């Protein structure tokens, strides 16, 4: 049974709404003002809140703002009821996170329609979130054990040999084993880092307030940062001579840390899926309505089907081509770009070039 909280300082209206909703099988809670409504919402976590706008002391807007600022109540569908449904007031309510407006006076059928529409939308969003979570769990359960075991096996095996036979081994072999342990440790470190970053990104994406704050960050002169990180990835791939850069410096609406992460993931992918001697180009340029960071490689390319399936923990044709990592690189870059109001697109032809373009809005002047 769905639980609905009705907040209004007019007793007759609360009783009328209560009676009407109870006849439809809803469990109804009443609150005579905003302060009481906030406390009841915190304690009973209703499936929907119907709240009057004009109330003394704590009005509908303050009630809405208070509930949206708490994790436990932030996602509860919220309908504002008002006899003064002017454009400015409606816009203010929507900016605070209201899901709908119910103008007074309203009919019983209008009440039912508004309530059922919000509850159906909330249910659809919940089902979509559960499906995504199920897909994520499925991909994780397949990929994570292998990805963690592979570097751990190298660390444990060579560590055991060194512990038991270090005194009898030639210095060159000790150095080689040490390098394997170091490389395996770095691989494991990146695996854990990407897992944590992906979880953080998903949490940020679900919080409108934090997303808004995030978009206020800037990198005034990104060219130097992009060059440093692109060259770093080229060195890690032992292919510094394959990298070409064409960077027109202009500010970007993203923090240096997140920009660096996007560059690292996209450029690393370009080197991973192309052969030594094939060029990897990194460009930064302005467009009519934004700034574009493009990374192009001359590698094996992706099919259209694979491009449309870029998702968390998904790797392409692992059985054919061994890949390291969880397949999170492009997903992290894509989600970070979207959180900052941009888009990430992939253009690729099977067996030919692949271009990943990260387009971000221009920094507003002033």
Write the layout of secondary structure elements.
Blueprint lengths: L2 E5 L3 H13 L3 E5 L2 H11 L3 E5 L7 H9 L9 E5 L4 H10 L3 E4 L4 H58 L5 H35 L2 H7 L7 H15 L6 E5 L8 H17 L7 E8 L2 E8 L6 H5 L20 H11 L3 E6 L5 E7 L6
State the CATH class of the largest domain: Alpha Beta
Number of strand elements:
10
CATH architecture of the largest domain: 2-Layer Sandwich
- For the record, give the distance between the C-alpha atoms at the N and C termini, rounded to a whole number: 52 Å
Fraction of residues in helices? 40-55%
- pLDDT < 50 runs, ≥5 residues: 311-326
Please summarize the sheet with the most strands. Answer: 5 strands, parallel
Overall structural class, as computed from helix and strand content, comes to alpha/beta
Question: How much of the sequence is in beta strands?
Answer: 15-25%
What are the secondary-structure elements, in order, as H or E?
A: EHEHEHEHEHHHHEHEEHHEE
- CATH-defined topology of the largest domain: Heat Shock Protein 90
Spatial sequence of strands, sheet with the most strands: 2-1-3-4-5
Shape descriptor reads: elongated
| Tally of distinct domains | 3
Rounded average pLDDT: 84
């Amino acid at each position: 049974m769905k639980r609905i909280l009705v907040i209004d300082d007019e007793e007759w209206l609360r009783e009328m709404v209560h009676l009407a909703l109870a006849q439809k099988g809803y469990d109804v809670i009443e609150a005579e003002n905003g302060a009481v409504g906030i406390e009841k919402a915190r304690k009973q976590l209703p499936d929907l809140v119907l709240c009057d706008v004009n109330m003394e002391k704590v009005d509908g807007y303050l009630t809405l703002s208070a509930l949206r600022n708490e994790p436990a109540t932030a996602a509860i569908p919220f309908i504002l009821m008002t006899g003064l449904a002017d454009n400015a007031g409606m816009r203010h309510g929507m900016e605070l996170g209201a899901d709908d407006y119910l103008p007074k006076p309203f009919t019983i059928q209008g009440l039912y329609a508004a309530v059922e529409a919000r509850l159906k939308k909330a249910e659809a969003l919940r089902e979509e979130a559960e499906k995504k979570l199920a897909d994520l769990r499925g991909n994780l359960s397949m990929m994570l054990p292998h990805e963690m075991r592979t570097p751990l096996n190298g660390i444990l095996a060579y560590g055991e040999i060194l512990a038991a036979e270090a005194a009898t081994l030639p210095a060159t072999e000790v150095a080689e084993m040490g390098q394997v342990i170091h490389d395996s440790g770095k691989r494991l470190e990146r695996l854990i880092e990407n897992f944590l970053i992906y979880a953080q990104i998903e949490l940020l994406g679900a919080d409108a307030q934090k997303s808004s704050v995030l978009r206020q960050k800037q990198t005034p002169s990104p060219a130097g940062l992009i060059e440093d990180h692109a060259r770093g990835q080229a060195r890690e791939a032992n292919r510094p001579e394959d990298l070409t850069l064409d960077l027109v410096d202009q500010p970007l609406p993203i923090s240096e840390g997140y920009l660096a992460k996007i560059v690292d993931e996209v450029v690393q992918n370009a080197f991973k899926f192309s052969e030594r001697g094939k060029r990897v180009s990194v460009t930064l340029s302005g467009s009519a309505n934004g700034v574009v960071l493009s990374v192009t490689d001359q590698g094996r390319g992706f099919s259209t089907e694979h491009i449309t399936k870029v998702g968390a923990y998904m790797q392409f044709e692992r059985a054919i081509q061994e890949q390291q990592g969880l397949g999170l690189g492009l997903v992290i870059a894509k989600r970070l770009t979207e959180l900052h109001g941009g888009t990430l697109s992939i253009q690729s032809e099977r067996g030919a070039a692949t271009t990943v373009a990260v387009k971000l809005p221009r920094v507003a002047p002033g």
